[in-house]
Design goal:
With about 110 residues, the chain is α/β, with parallel strands linked by helices. It has one domain: 2-Layer Sandwich (Transcription Regulator spoIIAA), CATH 3.30.750. It contains five helices and five strands. A hairpin with a 2-residue loop joins strand 1 and strand 2. The mean pLDDT is about 95.
C-alpha cells in the first residue's frame, strides 16, 4: 500500500494505492495518525487505485472517523466497483460520507 497526499481547498487529500489489508493496515494507520494534528483536520480519502480492502482496512477508516469526531471531517471518494461492494456489504456507505469523485468531496 502506498499513500500520497496533498492539500486542496482546506482538505488533506490522501490517495491509497494497492491493498488495504491486515499486512498494510498498521502502517497506513500510523501514517494517517501522523497527519492528524491538534487543530481541525479535514480529509478526503481517494480510493481510485485501491485494489482490495479487508476488514482491517475498514477498521482503519472507522478508527480515523472516531479520532476526527468533533475536531475534523472524513470524506471518502472514488470507490471502484470492488471497494464500493465492500462498503455496501459492510454498511460503511451509510456511516461514512461517500462521494463519487474527489471534486465532489472537495466542493
Amino acid at each position: 500500500m502506498q499513500l500520497t497526499y496533498s492539500e486542496k481547498n482546506g482538505y488533506k487529500v490522501v490517495h491509497f494505492e494497492g491493498s488495504l489489508d491486515t499486512v498494510t493496515s498498521p502502517e497506513v494507520e500510523k501514517t494517517i495518525n501522523a497527519l492528524i494534528d491538534a487543530d481541525t483536520v479535514k480529509f478526503v480519502f481517494n480510493f481510485d487505485k485501491t485494489r482490495y480492502m479487508s476488514s482491517s482496512g475498514l477498521r482503519v477508516l472507522l478508527a480515523t472517523a472516531k479520532k476526527l469526531k468533533g475536531k475534523g471531517e472524513l470524506k471518502i471518494s472514488n470507490l471502484n466497483e470492488m471497494i464500493e461492494e465492500v462498503f455496501d456489504i459492510s454498511g460503511f456507505n451509510q456511516i461514512l460520507n461517500v462521494y463519487k469523485t474527489e471534486e465532489e468531496a472537495l466542493a
